[in-house]
TrEMBL record, chain A:
Full protein name: cytochrome-c oxidase
Localization: Membrane
Keyword DNA-binding found: no
Molecular function via GO: cytochrome-c oxidase activity; heme binding; metal ion binding
Keywords noted in UniProt: Copper, Electron transport, Heme, Iron, Membrane, Metal-binding, Respiratory chain, Translocase, Transmembrane, Transmembrane helix, Transport
Annotated ranges, domain Cytochrome oxidase subunit I profile: 11-528
Family: Belongs to the heme-copper respiratory oxidase family.
Summary of the function given for this chain in its UniProt record: Cytochrome c oxidase is the component of the respiratory chain that catalyzes the reduction of oxygen to water. Subunits 1-3 form the functional core of the enzyme complex. CO I is the catalytic subunit of the enzyme. Electrons originating in cytochrome c are transferred via the copper A center of subunit 2 and heme A of subunit 1 to the bimetallic center formed by heme A3 and copper B.
GO biological process, one term: aerobic respiration
Superkingdom per UniProt: Bacteria
Broadest EC class assigned to this enzyme: translocase
GO cellular component assignments: membrane
TM stretches of this protein: 29-52, 72-97, 109-132, 161-188, 200-227, 247-271, 283-307, 319-343, 355-381, 393-413, 425-443, 463-486
Organism: Brasilonema sennae CENA114
UniProtKB/TrEMBL annotation, chain B:
GO molecular function, one term: copper ion binding
Function: Subunits I and II form the functional core of the enzyme complex. Electrons originating in cytochrome c are transferred via heme a and Cu(A) to the binuclear center formed by heme a3 and Cu(B).
Protein name in UniProt: Cytochrome c oxidase subunit 2
Subcellular location field: Cell membrane; Membrane
TM helices/strands, residue ranges: 46-69, 90-111
Length: 547, 295
């Protein structure tokens, strides 16, 4: 007798923590890898933000010198966008989409894994650039030439070089991820999972990833051309030779405005899942909400020049882009009204995910209103490149998108880990985040209205008051991550065992075990119902003991 | 009960209208003191946007907060399965469309009235051609002097061709249209005076014609609004809106002064960096030679 054990192909992969450090092709492992990696970089981005806010506590330059300040805000923006929000959203999507559409895997598992492993490469490159003799990139996250192609160090390998390389790799990773998710959604839905039976989260992911495929090549191309200008002496964007720096701005914003929706659409998806579950009602106007996601994608490809109202854009372009930019308010408005109507006459349970979702919706409403203001050219000309824009932008990317990512993490935590998180710690986390974020980002609006320019390390003393409030808010916001980390780690290790469907929610992901088996479902389900069938007699799952 | 609800709704609507109106009036005070003719319509637009924004914010928040207060779950059962309402959905699609058309129309109107931008060169890749510049001001104005604004890392200078005066201060006459020719010698800079509510990026190798009318005597601050590198925050200049007499007096006096290199904060900080606890020793672009000015 020999004692050789033969590992069959269908045998589950290792189930302990080690698999999260392996080149796994399981979409669930990749999803968690994305989420955890993104969160680690989020802590770096947040730390840089706190140093920036410490500098802005007083009008004088007294914490960091100017080049370091410029490096810090450049890295803060870059890390938060390319290493926190994008990967965190893609992480959630990776985990959830196959489960939500009843698929066993994503369409291209190996491509998916490669896309993930490029992310730590991007992060390490960017953080490593602080130790270069020429320092990290200092031209801001939008890296406009000619500032970005000035290279005083003379070194070939410099911060800007690394930055452009990192953005290019991140672009390649996102395009891979986009191809995978779009193909999965279009081709791998379970029998009966028609487009109008897909949860809104899947709709928003599809819309966001289509935008990635359509617009991201413009940025990746622009980054490569800028890299040539910087390192090889070409002059695509160099104004004193044959180039034109405005073309970079057009290419950059052709992607980077839609990028805001690549970040925000999945957030809208999370709100559309969480709010019905904790209001115990179907999502109001499901089809309109679903289709409005595609409308947002479509319109957002035609609004990029509103970032350039004060640039050398002619009058006709300013007027045209004012009109298209304002139009985005219609499909986003539809979503906000639908969430509000879902809550109306509901039976509301204020669990942590619901708090984050409602807080996120309220603050998105504010961001939407200031967004319409910014689309109005005469007003935008006054506040363009001031802290008003910084405030508006952070109400979108932090107060809406990051709140939604938190809502999503709490909501699906029992599914992902098989354990319940601690509700008390979760609520503490919410209130610290909500108060900290508003203290941090609201004061930027009055500062901008008063004319405080963004990206300055020192400022006129008249702006001191609101800056102190903003900085204290930033420190509180930094602290707010501590209960989150404590909760996630301790609950994953020792939390109460979670049932398959702790929220008694609809959606295929709740019909499988927590955590789901390797291939997601014992048997591929057949879908016969519209989603969000709360309150309807033919619910997919009913477990009265839950929620 | 029905009458009670209607009364409650009427009070809610009344409160929203009154609060929004008050916010709209307050909004003027959130902006810095207006000192140019262009600032007034921008103030009206902002007040209008704040009024409409407050109506939308309070209406939606009112419904949300009402729900949060009064629709807390008492048991684990589901709420009524209301899937939608076509009339309501059409209403909340049409209302934003109308609002957006209203806001865009009003903004367009105001932008036309501001008329700050001279025609821009559409093609600006030909180095040897002189920049395209067309006078678009109304014909009944007497011709005014064009002031050249030169931005470089990191200083502003203003050249008055008629007297051949260069200064680090921008002096302009009250109630007279100012014509600026914006130029940059290195990177993209931005011309921004918050009190005038005007802003224009300055793209190197282009001359951008820009005009506005200051209408309040005083001293204001010019900021660089487009990130321009290491000493970006120091790139500021004083703007003086003078009475015609004072303006002429200043220009005449400046013309008599000898040309000397200007005092430049970026240059001083470059040679004597402040002692901050956290600092890098990264290479930075050295400040350009300060402009030579008649004071």
């Amino acid at each position: 007798m020999t004692n050789i054990s033969i590992k069959s192909a269908s045998e589950p992969e290792q189930t302990d923590w080690k698999r999260y450090f392996s080149f796994s092709t399981d979409h669930k492992v990749i999803g968690v890898q994305y989420l955890v990696t993104a969160f680690i970089f989020f802590l770096f981005g947040g730390l840089f933000a706190m140093i920036i806010r410490a500098e802005l506590l007083t009008p004088q330059l007294d914490v960091v010198n100017r080049s370091l300040y410029n490096g810090l805000f450049t890295m803060h923006g870059t890390i938060m966008i390319f290493l926190w929000i994008f990967p965190a959203n893609v992480g959630l999507a990776n985990y959830l989409v196959p489960l939500m559409i009843g698929a066993r895997e994503t369409a291209f598992p190996v491509l998916n894994a490669i896309a993930f492993w490029l992310i730590p490469v991007v992060g390490i490159l960017l953080l490593f650039s602080f130790f270069l003799p020429s320092g990290t990139a200092q031209a801001g996250w939008w890296s406009y030439p000619p500032v970005s192609i000035q290279n005083p160090s003379g070194h070939l390998i410099n911060g800007e070089f690394i930055w452009l390389l990192a953005v290019t790799i991140s672009g390649v990773s996102s395009i891979m991820g986009g191809v995978n998710l779009v193909t999965t959604i279009v081709r791998m839905r379970a029998p009966g999972m028609t487009f109008f039976r897909m949860p809104v989260y899947v709709w928003t992911t599809l819309s966001a990833q289509l935008l990635q495929l359509f617009c991201l090549p413009a940025l990746t191309g622009a980054a490569i051309l800028l890299l040539f200008d910087l390192s090889l002496g070409t002059d695509f964007f160099s104004p004193f030779k044959q180039g034109d720096p405005m073309i970079y701005q057009h290419l950059f914003w052709f992607y980077s405005h839609p990028a805001v929706y690549v970040m925000a659409l999945p957030a809208f998806g999370v709100f559309s899942e969480v709010i019905p579950a904790f209001a115990r009602k179907p999502l109001f106007g499901y089809k309109t909400v679903a289709v409005s996601s595609l409308l947002i994608s479509g319109i957002s490809t035609l609004v990029w020049a509103h970032h350039m109202f004060a640039s050398a854009t002619p009058n006709w372009m300013r007027m045209l882009f004012m009109a298209t930019s304002m139009l985005v308010a219609v499909p986003t408005g539809i979503k906000v009204f639908a969430w509000t109507a879902t809550v109306w006459r509901g039976k509301l349970h204020f669990k942590t995910p619901m708090l984050f979702a409602l807080g996120g919706v309220a603050m998105f409403l504010f961001a939407g209103i200031t967004g319409v203001m910014l689309a109005a050219v005469p007003f935008d000309i006054h506040v363009n490149n001031t802290h008003f824009v910084v405030g508006h932008f952070h109400y979108v990317v932090f107060n809406t998108v990051s709140m939604a990512i938190y809502a999503g993490i709490y909501y699906w935590f029992p599914k992902i880990t098989g354990r319940m998180y601690s509700e008390g710690w979760g609520k503490l986390h919410f209130w610290l985040t909500f108060i900290g974020a508003n203290l941090n980002f609201f004061p930027m609006h009055p500062l901008g209205l008063q004319g405080m320019v963004r990206r300055i390390a020192s400022y006129d003393p008249q702006y001191t008051g609101w800056n102190i409030v903003a900085s204290l808010g930033a420190f509180l916001l930094g602290m707010s991550t501590l209960p989150f980390i404590a909760n996630m780690v301790s609950s994953w290790l020792r939390g109460r065992k979670a049932p398959n469907n702790p929220w008694n929610a609809t959606g295929l992901e709740w019909t499988t075990s927590s955590p789901p088996p390797l291939e997601n479902f014992e048997e591929i389900p057949t879908v016969t119902l519209e989603p969000y069938s709360y309150g309807e007699s033919h619910r997919l799952t009913t477990d009265p003991s839950s929620i | 009960m029905r009458t009670f609800n209607i009364t409650l709704l009427a009070i809610f609507v009344g409160v929203i209208i009154l609060t929004s109106h008050a916010m709209g009036q307050q909004a003027y005070h959130w902006l810095p003191i207006a000192a140019a003719a262009e600032a007034e319509p921008v103030g009206h637009l902002f007040s209008f946007l704040v009024t409409l924004g407050t109506i939308v914010f309070l209406s939606v928040m009112g419904v949300l907060v009402y729900s949060i207060l009064f629709y807390r779950a008492s048991d684990t059962s589901d709420a009524p399965a209301i899937r939608g309402n076509l009339k309501l959905e059409i209403t909340w699609t049409v209302i934003p469309i109308l609002l957006v058309i209203w806001i865009a129309g009003y903004s367009y109107n105001i932008y036309q009235r501001m008329n700050i931008l001279g025609s821009l060169p559409l093609v600006h890749l030909h180095l040897l051609e002189s920049p395209a510049y067309a006078e678009t001001g109304s014909s009944n104005m007497q011709p005014t002097e064009q002031i050249e604004v030169i931005a470089k890392q990191w200083s502003w200078s203003f050249h008055y061709p008629s007297q051949n005066v260069t200064s680090t201060e921008l002096h302009i006459r009250v109630n007279r249209p100012v014509h600026l020719m914006l130029k940059s010698e290195d990177v993209v800079h931005g011309f921004y005076v918050p009190n005038f509510r005007i802003k224009q990026d300055i793209v190197p190798n282009q001359t951008i014609a820009f005009k506005f009318t200051p209408n309040r005597i005083g001293q204001y601050q010019l900021h660089d609004s487009q990130f321009s590198g290491t000493y970006f925050a120091l790139m500021e200049a004083n703007v003086f809106v003078d009475s015609p007499e004072r303006y002429n007096q200043w220009l005449a006096q400046a013309a008599t002064r000898p040309s000397v290199p200007a005092i430049n904060p970026a240059k001083s900080e470059h040679s004597q960096p402040p002692k901050t606890p956290l600092r890098s020793n990264w290479h930075t672009v050295p400040p350009a030679q300060p402009p030579v000015v008649n004071k």
